[in-house]
Amino acid sequence: MPLDVDHLRRWIGNGEEARDQITPQLVKGYRAMLDEDPGEPAPGEEAPLAIHWCLAPPVAPMSALGRDGHPARGGFLPPVPLPRRMWAGGEIEWLGDLRVGDRVTRRSTIEDVTAKRGRTGDLCFVAVRHHYETERGAAVSERHDVVYREEGAGAAAPRYAEEAAELERVIDPTPTLLFRYSALTYNGHRIHYDRPYATGVEGYPGLVVHGPLQSTYLQYLARDMNAGERPRVMRYRGVGTLFDGAPFRVCGRRLPDGTAALWTCAEDGRLAMTATAIW
What we know:
The protein is of the alpha+beta class. The protein has 5 helices and 10 strands. GO terms for molecular function: (3R)-hydroxyacyl-[acyl-carrier-protein] dehydratase activity.
């Protein structure tokens, strides 16, 4: 189908609302996924960074899923007629705390729909604004950028990390880790857990490491670089793809202006995600 951007832009302003609760069991599972002691989360204690991505995920019957495991196009998101959908990046602003036991409301709005012709073919970008609130008020405001691509589109030329890291973590993206994160976020996208689909249908060399999982590790690294204080704002962008089968690095360095440059990369330095943390 042709990419009719004028038609897709009619979805700008479309909104939806969802509610969920940060339960102790969710926090235990999340900590375990990050290889931390699950402990016994107590009501009122601060919830882990980026756990908001586990809250109120879209739920669709099996019959309403597309071939890739995502809910079929249309409804809240515009029906972009490009088959590959990926998390392209975004910006997170922390306005308050999320705590164990909180009942959280997420209000989502389509902010923009744009298209361009890139080196890898047609691309369509959908920007979604999410606001998370508790009974105490606003907690998180986030812009989530989704990119849609053509079937069989080639990868862009790789970029490489050029600076040395001040702090670095090494993560082994095992199939179990990717499955657990998919389960916690109710993400049915088959590229993260179904190897025959990821390699045979979408042409990847392995299972794909989730964009938000990479961003989660970067948020934790930024916090550790600043004496345990989380950033006020974090902007991040996917620039490459990571796969299971080999460890990847989560890196950061402080800049003279007090911000931090952050990135994830493969063992050979190929960048997958870049980010900036602002306190």
